[in-house]
Every structure is written in structure tokens, then in C-alpha cells.
Amino acid sequence: MSDQRLPKPPAIDAMQVAPAPGSNYPDAFKPRVAGRAKRKLGDALGLKNFGVNLTTIRPGAASALRHWHLTQDEFVYILEGELVLVTDAGEQVLRAGMAAGFPAGKADGHHLVNRADHDAVYLEVGDRSAGDAGNYPDDDLVARAVNGVWKFTHKDGTPY
User: What class does CATH assign to 18-149?
Assistant: First the structure.
């Protein structure tokens, strides 16, 4: 007798996708996101045109360095806890049930910071546009997507 509760392809149990801790940032920037773990649901499901991550942020950690994308849209939906959204306009608290979107090419650096005393969980969706670049207004960092891999340089173009 089969267990009707177990998902069958194309469905998955999101919690069975192993969390990918840390970051692909250069070493100097990794501590700022050390409390982040992403379950790469889009990859687990074989999605090619957009990514979907179920992300957990521990207290004191950030989702990313404050950034904006040249060609990729981003969307976040808060599932549990609360996170502080930091943008060029300032800060606001996002709680479970709230969403935020970041249109491609809009030079408004953003990231999420967990200032609470418990984990926060959110769903992150972004497209995988070719030729994207990430701009980091607060840091000497630029990211460029090259053949699906992020390459990081200083703002003057020298590599890390």
C-alpha cells in the first residue's frame, strides 16, 4: 500500500531539499550572510527560466549584501517571522504574509536583515536573464552572470 501523503513528481517536499548555507561572495563578504540557508526549490524541480528559493535567515544575518540587478526581477514573500527590508528609501519591517518586488534595472539597492531573536523564512523568486549584473552600492563589489555562474570583481574591474 502506497503512502498517499508522499509527493510524486513533479511535486516535492520542500523540506527534503538540502539547505545550501553561506554564499558565493568573495571571502571578505561571506560573514554578513553566514546565517542564511537557501533550499533551491527551482533547481530541485529542474526549472530553467526562473529560480525559487525557500530561504531561512538566522537572527543577526542578512539575505544578501544590499544590491540591485540589471536585468533580473526579484520577488520575496515572507512566510515566517519578520525581516527588515533596507532600500535606498530607508527601512521597513516585513512580516509573514507581506511581499516585496524589485524590478530589473531599478537602481535601488535592497536586502533583508533579521533583527529579531528567531529565524525568519521567506520565498524568493527571480528570473535567470542572460547577461545580468548585480550592483552593490555599499560595497566595492560588482557581480556579472557569465554562463550561469556569478563572477565577482571590484568596481574598477579587478577580480577578487
Answer: mainly beta
Q: Count Cα atoms within 13 angstroms, Cβ side, for 106.
A: 11
Q: With helix as H, strand as E and coil as C, how does 117-156 read? A: CCCEEEEEEEECCCCCEEECCCCCCEEEEECCEEEEECCC
3-state secondary structure of 115: coil
Distance CA 149, CA 158 (A): 17
Reference 141, options 158, 119, 127; nearest CA is: 158
Domain ranges of the chain: 18-149
Lookup result for grid cell 542572460 = 130
* Span 26-42, pLDDT tens digits: 999 999 999 999 999 99
- What the block records as the C-alpha cell of 93 is 519591517
Query: Which neighbouring-strand residues pair with 99?
Result: 77
